[in-house]
Amino acid sequence: MVRRRRLSSGYTLLELLVVLVVVGLTLSMAVLSVGDGGRGERIKQESKRIAALLELAGEEALLDGRELGLRLYRDGYTFVYLEGKEWKAFEEDFSLRPRALPKGLALLLYLDGLELKLELKDYVENPPAPQLLLLSSGEHTPFELMLIDGPEMAPEEQLRYRLSAGPIGPVTVEGPLEGEL
């Protein structure tokens, strides 16, 4: 009589452990390749947004023949226009509406190489005069704006992007920057 060996229909414990180790290694490599868990992408997108909005506002000032500006706060910014002798915030224009920065981001403004102290946004109806002017002639205030992710962190742990522009020309975005402020 011939004995038939019964084949098992499942996996051994060793095979399952090998599969789990391979899956774990693959997931850990994927997490490491993402890096900062989205911090870098968030600050990069916000710096590009601010640069694009500055370009848009500059074009609008040129096309409409009116003076615009940007009022900066540590935690946000407001585009304004000059009406008579008062600066008024854009409330109806969706693209130039007042904006708050995402939590954990902060702004630093430098004019002529000197840092201007930025306050927290006070949400007043008529904001004070803007720090950056976007003139109907196509000129604008030369500036350097630093966008910082993690202002409460040690400088070497922060992510930073620099937006800058001369009196004419486009806004440039540089980053991520390390070891400077």
What's the SSE blueprint?
Elements: H1 13-34, H2 39-64, E1 68-73, E2 76-83, E3 86-89, E4 99-100, E5 105-111, E6 114-116, E7 132-134, E8 143-149, E9 159-165, E10 172-177
Antiparallel strand pairs: 1-2, 1-7, 2-3, 2-4, 5-6, 5-8, 8-9, 9-10
Describe the structure.
The chain is α+β, with helices and mostly antiparallel strands and 181 residues long. Helix content is 27%, strand content 29%. The chain is built from two helices and ten strands, in the order ααββββββββββ. It has helices spanning 13-34, 39-64, and strands at residues 68-73, 76-83, 86-89, 99-100, 105-111, 114-116, 132-134, 143-149, 159-165, 172-177. The strands form two sheets. Strands 1, 2, 3, 4 and 7 form a five-stranded antiparallel β-sheet that branches. Strand 5 and strand 6 (114-116) form a beta hairpin. The N and C termini lie far apart (86 Å). The mean pLDDT is 84.
In short:
With 181 residues, the protein is α+β, with helices and mostly antiparallel strands.
Distance between the termini: 86 Å
Structural class: alpha+beta
Strand content: 25-35%
Total helices: the number is 2
Low-confidence stretches: none
Overall number of strands: 10
**Biggest pleated sheet:** 5 strands, antiparallel
Question: Which key phrases capture this entry?
Answer:
single chain, 181 residues, alpha+beta, 5-stranded antiparallel β-sheet, 2 helices, 29% strand
